[in-house]
Amino acid sequence: MFEAIKKMMTGGESAEARSELDPHVAAATLLVEAALADGIYADVEAEKISFILKSAFNLDDEAAAAMQEKAEDLAENATDHHQFTKVVKACLPASERVALIEHLWAVAMADGEKSPFEDSFIRRIAPLLAVDDRERVLARSRAEAAARKS
C-alpha cells in the first residue's frame, strides 16, 4: 500500500525516466523551445541550434542532428519547461547555465526579429536555471554583440 502511494506521489516510472534525461539534450530542448516561443520555427533558428550544439557540446554533424531531432520531439510533446530546467540546473555548472542563456538569446535573435514571446521565455527560464538577472542581461549583451559581428 505504501509503495502504491509513493508511486502516485512521485509519478512512478515517469519520474525515473525524466531523471535519466541527458542534461545536454535538456539544454538542446530549451534551445528549440526558445525558437518555438514566437510560434515560428524558422530554418535560420534550426541552423543556429545545430551550430550551437556542435560548438558547445563538441559534436559532429551526425551527433548534433540526432540530438536536435530528439530535442525537437521533446519540445513538441512537452507540457512544461520544468522537466528540462530541473535537469540542466542539477547537472550543469553555473558557467554552462549562463552560456546556455547566451545561446538562448542567440537563437531568439537568429531570425532578425525581436519577439516579446522569445524575450519572455528567456526571462522565465533564467531563474529556473539559477541564473540571476544581471547574468541574463550580460548574456544578452554578449549574444547581441556576436550577432552584430556576424
Walkthrough of the structure:
The chain has 150 residues and is an all-alpha fold. It has one domain: TerB-like, CATH 1.10.3680. It contains 9 helices and no strands. It has helices spanning 2-10, 13-19, 23-36, 43-56, 61-77, 82-91, 94-109, 116-128, 133-149. The longest helix has 17 residues, at 61-77. The protein is globular and about 35 Å long. The termini are far apart.
Task: Give the secondary structure arrangement, pairings included.
Layout: H1 2-10, H2 13-19, H3 23-36, H4 43-56, H5 61-77, H6 82-91, H7 94-109, H8 116-128, H9 133-149
Helix pairs in contact: 3-4, 3-5, 3-6, 3-7, 4-5, 4-7, 7-8, 7-9
Helix-strand sequence: HHHHHHHHH
State Rg.
16 Å
What count of domains describes the coordinates?
1
Q: Helical content, roughly?
A: over 70%
> How much beta, percentage-wise?
under 5%
Quick one: overall form? globular
Q: CATH topology, which one?
A: TerB-like
Mean pLDDT level: 88
Straight-line distance between termini: 61 Å
Report the top-level CATH class.
Answer: Mainly Alpha
Runs in which pLDDT lies below 50 for 5 or more consecutive residues are 4-18
Report the count of strand segments.
0
Instruction: Name the CATH architecture.
Output: Orthogonal Bundle
Compute the number of helices: 9
Q: State the secondary-structure class.
A: mainly alpha
**Name given to the CATH homologous superfamily:** TerB-like
Pfam families: TerB
Protein name: TerB family tellurite resistance protein
InterPro entries: DjlA_N, TerB-like
